[in-house]
Amino acid sequence: MKQRAELIVLADEVVTCAGKGTPKNKDEAAQVGLISNGAVVLNDGRITEVGSRHKILQKWTGDRLELENTSVIPGLVDPHCHPIWAGDRKHEFALRAQGATYEEIHAAGGGIAHTVEATRKASDKQLKSKTLEILEYMMAHGTTTLEAKSGYGLSVEEELRHLEILKKVNRESAMDLVSTCLGAHSIPPEFKDDRAGFVRLVTEEMLPAVKEKELADFADVFCERGAFTCEESRQVLEAAKALGFGLRIHAEEFSNLGGSRMAGELGAASCDHLQHIHEDDFQALKDGGTIPTVIPGTSFFLALDVYAPARKLWDAGLPVALGTDYNAGSCLLPSMQMAMSLAVLQMKMTPEEALTAATYNAAHSLGWGHKIGSIEPGKQADLVVLNTSSWKDAIYRFGGNAVRAVIKKGVVLNTILRSPLGAPL
Ligand code: NIG
Ligand code: FE
After folding, report:
1. Segment 133-148, tens digit of pLDDT
2. pTM of the predicted model, to two decimals?
3. 299 CB less than 6 Å from ligand 1?
4. What is the total count of domains within the chain?
5. Which letter does DSSP use for residue 191 in this model?
6. CA–CA separation, 69 vs 102, rounded Å?
7. Considering every ligand atom, which ligand is closest to the CA of 85?
8. 116 FRET partner, CA 20 to 30 A, in 40, 68, 105, 274?
9. Residue with the nearest Cα to atom 5 of ligand 1?
């Protein structure tokens, strides 16, 4: 007698990305676990079994999702994202085309401060609906779990408000959110002459309040010239660690201040950006078990020549993760497919490494490696059905959307691209 499954997903290729339960180095990433003519059995929102079509259909019966010319990959995991803000920064986009740099615009009081002003003015309802809209668009592009940073409030009240809205959004959206408090994103204008006062506000009031209300799993800081010095960043991260937050850091994006060494030393979960990391900083990340998360979209969107040395990071044995950095100023990229394309084109990752960085390793950087990031029995049934019999097309055909269907916790979602012209703003 065959066993009854809630859903059996069949495809020309199933890429499991299965692993040993720890972040993958480049040798492990090379093995994506491709099954030709594969099938995945789903029950109660989880994966029960995965294998060849022949083997699975001998054993299981039930509803089938069997679309022609498709392949299946794990749901994509975006481990670096700023999804909650208002307004836009089109004017900066145009200014940069005329030669202004991101850092010059930031130093002149634009940049993050511009988005903070617009976001503080936006109502809860506006922020919530705008965030839900972009999440739906990201899901339609295959992202099923998203790290969500606050960071455009920069006061205790506003950061709490944005994190509360993210909590509601997490309940209402099919997307799983992992929240991060990035209250130390920039010095707000009202603290311009009292940097130490703002760091004290973050460490003594904001982070404890966020912890008390259980609004974020992680804390983050923008360690960069023009933002927070390495010493200030250390104060923020040490306070966060003492409160029990997992740590993430924006480091070595425009300059090398030593943030990656500090991240390793403090045992941060993730150290992100890294365009200016030095090779002799790599060991600290290894020692700390810190995952380097690279973001090629930012270099691309800011038209910088420098990309993070992802090839060297993999070659040094580190497990690399990949994110979009979706935000109004430095990278308005909602698609992990495009992030993977840029990782291959500009960072010389193999397609297998790009997929691993966008699934398995990204899940580990969020502390969710046991739950998502691969198609393995017992894991949450988060799958993406691609509109191609060869999964690599999703990376090779860059700038498009190869998603045919998204399955979240076992449910086939009716994700609709609301705007054929692009992401909702
Ligand atoms: O990841 N680096 C800091 N935060 C963002 C930029 C945010 C913004 O410009 O609004 C980043 O690049
Ligand atoms: Fe960022």
Report:
1. 999 999 999 999 999 9
2. 0.97
3. no
4. 2
5. G
6. 43
7. 1
8. 274
9. 330
